[in-house]
Every structure is written in structure tokens, then in C-alpha cells.
Design a protein that fits this description.
Structural class: mainly alpha
Order of helices and strands: HHHHHHH
Strand content: under 5%
Radius of gyration: 20 Å
Helix content: over 70%
Largest sheet: none
Oligomer: single chain
Number of strands: 0
Length: 199
């Protein structure tokens, strides 16, 4: 059963559609996690309406907290939610097949020294420059959606400083966010209950 069918406002994809879209994403998506988020959001939320924005960011949160590449994790989670284990396997394979073929061909070309490395480096620099803009747009979208109050702003700033200046592992940042959220949530709930009792 398609587990997204409870959301009557969204389109429920077939297994064929899921495989096609993740194959297309694997074929056309370049860059790191930030740029991937932008492409994923456009396909799954804006263009095809398979997920609401809230559902999308919930999946991304789970993907980021799980070991592995965010795009692969998202494909696995989305496939599992829509078509169970078979959906998870096929969505993940659909995503990976195009990059696998591309890397295999590129490696063969490089090993045979057919390509000019100076030209290759120039192409990569141009691609990376364009991806910077895509990444910034994705980060802006993510921040706009998730930094909604003082606590989330604090977590974001502390995480940024810890990553940039102290170079802490990402897993520690995730643990900090979880602990901070639990403590703040408990404090907020306690304060709310006290207010209700005083009323």
C-alpha cells in the first residue's frame, strides 16, 4: 500500500514513476548535499507534488542523521514509504545506475590518458563555481523553513561555529541538536504546565 495515500492533496507515484524520477536525478544532479537538496525539493515537492514541504524536510532530517549520502538515503526512504522494501531497493538502484556508468566511462578514459587533465580541471572549476550558487540557494531554502525561532537560531549558529572553527564531527553536532531540543522542549512544556496551573 502506498503510505503517502493518506495525504489526499498529493499525487501518489507508481513504482515506475519513482524509479524514473530517481534515475533522472542520478543522471542530472551534480554537487554536494546542499545542491542535491534543491534538486530533490524541485522534483518531489514543487514539480510532482509527491510530498508536502514539511514531509520533505522530515525525510531530509532522517537522511542527514543516517550514515551515507543524503541523496541515496532519501531515495531509500522515499521508496520504502511508497512501495515498501522493493520500492526502497529499486529507487536506490535507479538513483545509482547513471553515476555508476558515468564514473566507469570516465575512469576508463582517464586510465587511457585520452583526456587533457588541464582541460578537465578547467571544466571542473567552472562546474564548481556554478554549484556554489545552487548550494547557496538550497541553504537559504533550508534555513527559511527550519530556522523559525530563537532556539533553532541558536542551534544553527552553534553548529556553524563548531563546524567551521572547531571542526567537530557532524555526528557531535547532531547529538548536540537532539539534546538541546529535548532540554528546551522539556523546559517549554514545564513552563506551559506551570502557566496553566497558575491560571
Amino acid at each position: 500500500m502506498n503510505k503517502l495515500s493518506e495525504n489526499t492533496n498529493m499525487h501518489n507515484p507508481s513504482l515506475k514513476e519513482v524509479c524514473f524520477v530517481f534515475f533522472y536525478l542520478g543522471l542530472t544532479t551534480f554537487g554536494g548535499a546542499s545542491s542535491m537538496l534543491l534538486f530533490l525539493s524541485r522534483e518531489l515537492v514543487e514539480k510532482r507534488r509527491w510530498l508536502t514541504e514539511d514531509e520533505f524536510y522530515k525525510q531530509i532530517s532522517v537522511s542527514q542523521c543516517s550514515p551515507g549520502i543524503i541523496m541515496v538515503n532519501t531515495a531509500t526512504i522515499f521508496g520504502m514509504q511508497t512501495h515498501g522494501v522493493i520500492g526502497a531497493i529499486l529507487a536506490t538502484l535507479s538513483l545509482l545506475i547513471a553515476p555508476f556508468i558515468f564514473i566507469a566511462i570516465l575512469t576508463t578514459i582517464i586510465n587511457k590518458a585520452v583526456i587533457d587533465f588541464a582541460l578537465l580541471n578547467s571544466i571542473y572549476r567552472a562546474i564548481r563555481a556554478g554549484l556554489c550558487a545552487i548550494s547557496l540557494k538550497a541553504v537559504y531554502n533550508l534555513a527559511k523553513k527550519n530556522i523559525v525561532d530563537i532556539p533553532t537560531l541558536i542551534v544553527s549558529l552553534v553548529a556553524f561555529i563548531a563546524l567551521i572553527y572547531f571542526k567537530l564531527p557532524a555526528v557531535l553536532i547532531i547529538i548536540f541538536g537532539i539534546v538541546f531540543s529535548l532540554i528546551f522542549g522539556s523546559f517549554k512544556e514545564k513552563h506551559k504546565n506551570q502557566g496553566q496551573n497558575n491560571a
